[in-house]
Amino acid sequence: IPPHNLGEVVDGLIALIDRPDLSDEKLLDLVPGPDFPTGGEIVGAQGIREAYTTGRGSIAVQGVAKFEEVTTTRRRGRLAIVVTELPFQVNKAAWIEKVAELVNQGRIEGIADLRDESDREGMRVVIELRRDTKPQDVLNQLYKQTALCTNFGAILLALVDGQPRQLTLRQILDQFLIFRETTLRRQYTYELERSQE
User: Fold this and answer.
1) pLDDT per residue over 147-156, tens digit each?
2) I want to staple 102 with a disulfide (CB 3.0 to 4.6 A). Which of 16, 107, 139, 147 is the partner?
3) Across the beta sheet with 41-42, what order do the strands follow?
């Protein structure tokens, strides 16, 4: 199960409490998709819709990159690709190492320098380009040949009555509401018995 924004999930739960017959479309508006902690952009909604309606789906996630003109002490005004977010579960150091390896093998061309400028403010990997290179072509090669673009396999699997089951988004939220109702009923029964004693 991919990580989600807690506020969106709670909004979906409240809506199901108020209106148990809520349509799938309205539920998907309230819980639009996963919220990956490392960032990245979800590409297309088909994978999310499939995961939420069938319990299984593949969500395409790609890193966030922009073009920037960078100035160093040795060189001025060189165009660079700056990666600020990686897809979920992609290790930054391993990804940088893979890019360097592909450049050394000649499978990705047009890269002059690669460095990690990440700090407490956030992630920043700078890929300096050669002067005669088209930046979009290099970025496309990075998406195609590295983990800058990956698929996250989502399976909404949960224990229901002690048995593992693949559930839709609606079913998983309903099961959570049943669990909370049971938990609160036990808690209040215990507190009532203590007070009566």
Assistant:
1) 999 999 999 9
2) 107
3) 41-42, 56-62, 149-155
